[in-house]
Amino acid sequence: MTTAREVAIVAFAQSDHRRRTDDLSEVEMVMPVLHEVQRQTGLKASDIGFTCSGSSDYLAGRAFSFTMALDGVGAWPPISESHVETDGAWALYEAWVKLLTGEADTALVYSYGKSSPGSARDVLTRQLDPYYLAPLWPDSVALAALQAQALVDAGDTDEPALAAIAARSREDARTNPHAQLAGARPQGGYAVQPLRTGDCPPIGDGAAAVILAAGDRARELCARPAWIRGMDHRIEAHSLGVRDLTDSPSTRLAAERAGAFERPVDTAELHAPFTSQEVVLRKALGLDDSVRINPSGGALAANPVMAAGLIRLGEAAARIHRGESDRALAHATSGPCLQQNLVAVLEGEPRG
Amino acid sequence: MTAVTPPPEALRAPLVVEFPFTRSLGPVQSAFLTGLRERTVLGVRTEAGEVLVPPVEYDPATAAELRELVEVAATGTVTTWAWNPEPRPGQPLATPFAWVLVRLDGADTALLHALDAPGPEAVRTGLRVRIRWAAERSGAITDIACFEPYESTEAHEPAPHDREFENPVTGIVAPARLDYTYSPGRAQTRYLHALAERRTVGERCPSCAKVYVPPRGACPTCGVATTDQVEVGPRGTVTTFCIVNIKAKNLDIEVPYVYAHIALDGAGLALHGRIAGIPYDEVRMGLRVEPVWSEDGRYPDHYRPTGEPDADYDTYKELL
């Protein structure tokens, strides 16, 4: 789709992702991240035209948990605010649409997740089909392992190739000061075969925030805005048995509608918490070795649930801000085995 | 008076979220689950002729309503699998097993369930299996206890089914329990530790100077961290109140009782507390109160009158 109004990511910040943050409440975890994006742009809370957040009550174990995090935003005088009960990437989509309509010129998008209070594997079973799946308690690692085995059977990958994805990701994470797992580490024993512990994301807590701005406002706030040239998200059937687990038609369609196939990208930040899911996404997006995949380390290096997708968009934008990328693809996923996927295409101003 | 204390050890406590989710069933789901109770597996046929198992009410591709039921076999083929070496609570088997997607004979889609096998070397894609039925069945997906390896031929023509069962299942109860360990964060940890010493400590916003009790770690008006700790109270003023006439479950307090907003001296907003030690119909705005601590002394059980003259309205009107 062609957009009449230019909207860009002009600031990005994230927490140092850790296994547990018992000493911090959600607002205490989120607030430094909000202050950092404000500092990068010079914007104050009153300058922001729209605020949207992503989080999940099931992670916190409390209803309407996001309202507590609003304390950190400064919601006075009353702000224009919205919330999505999913990854912050979908909050960014909502904010992007808001800016495209012309209703606001700037937006704050943030998300956070604290997996440490509960068992992430058990919590995520509650998102499954309540009639046929949830009563069996298949955890997120088991579902990803079914997908991994389907890929192995199809000849798309094998265990050494998956281990190489893990090693590359965590090696790249050495240059990411916010990563939870940086540097080489053993693949470990099977979590659910064929996935080993090294194929799985770390369990951790974290938060992220970005600021969007439209048109000349973006140029005022950021030396090299990361323009959102297109963004789309698509969903597949929730029943795993109906889907081809080796492919991701929703990713491909979202990418097509985001304009990803019009010109090559130099960078892709893929939301692949499991090594096997990078295989699926590369295939669906047609990414070859000329594209730098997850230079941040990706979700294998830090996976704060509900924030990891927003971080992909933030990391891709930050590389454009720094001049390390000219055209990047950012992807976020939600639901089991890549059920729902969002793709954005970001570009910096042409050089020269 | 300002008290600065070093950060105490983070508090934590168990938090259990438990609920018996009760769900009604659509006509296709009802037939499928009733069928499981009767050891019959039903699929639903789409307009394109595909047989979906487990069946859904609407076509995942076209969203058309689906109603044509067919019976498929209790045998099938594994389409993918994953060996689960350490079963988790609530999963179908307590001993190591394989998660499998099984395409039952006569079906075009696969059903996710557990496969009982001696080890991963005994499992492969393409393995022939059959349903092991649960001894007691109620009309739930767990009526399939698991799958087990079973050699058989694949041929099965799905037969039309009229969905007529005696005593059809119309709903399911799916209990869910999630166990958390809750930590309140730095600001509330400091507050709770101070309470245990019978002191009430709030935090001041560096921007607007409002003192928050209990502290939240941030000023919701200014969006900045509150870090200065300020001891408030112990006495305070009732700013507003209500009289509760309905007895709450598990609350051992006789009705009617008074629940009030109490602005402790020095605090920038009121906190909640019960008023006792005075007839409920004599409680009023401006009443001066003090805390009565609980038996273990960890928090105020309620507030009672101090006997002082009432506070002037002007002194607390901003806190309403």
Automatic annotation (TrEMBL), chain A:
List, alphabetically, the SUPFAM superfamilies matched: Thiolase-like
| InterPro entries linked to this entry | Thiolase-like
Query: From which domain of life does this come?
Result: Bacteria
Instruction: State a single Gene Ontology molecular function.
Output: acyltransferase activity, transferring groups other than amino-acyl groups
What is the residue range of the signal peptide feature?
none
Q: What is the recorded name of this protein?
A: Lipid-transfer protein
Q: Which organism is it from?
A: Streptomyces vietnamensis
From TrEMBL, chain B:
Q: Where is the ChsH2 C-terminal OB-fold domain?
A: 70-133, 230-293
Query: PANTHER family in the record, alphabetically?
Result: BLR3430 PROTEIN
Give the GO molecular function terms: DNA binding
The answer on whether this UniProt entry bears the keyword Magnesium reads: no
Tagged with keyword GTP-binding = no
Q: Where is the ChsH2 rubredoxin-like zinc ribbon domain?
A: 193-225
The record's keywords, sorted A to Z, are: DNA-binding
Q: Which organism is it from?
A: Streptomyces vietnamensis
- Name it: DNA-binding protein
Q: Which Gene3D superfamilies match?
A: 6.10.30.10
**Top-level taxon of origin:** Bacteria
Identify the taxonomic lineage of the organism of origin: Bacteria, Bacillati, Actinomycetota, Actinomycetes, Kitasatosporales
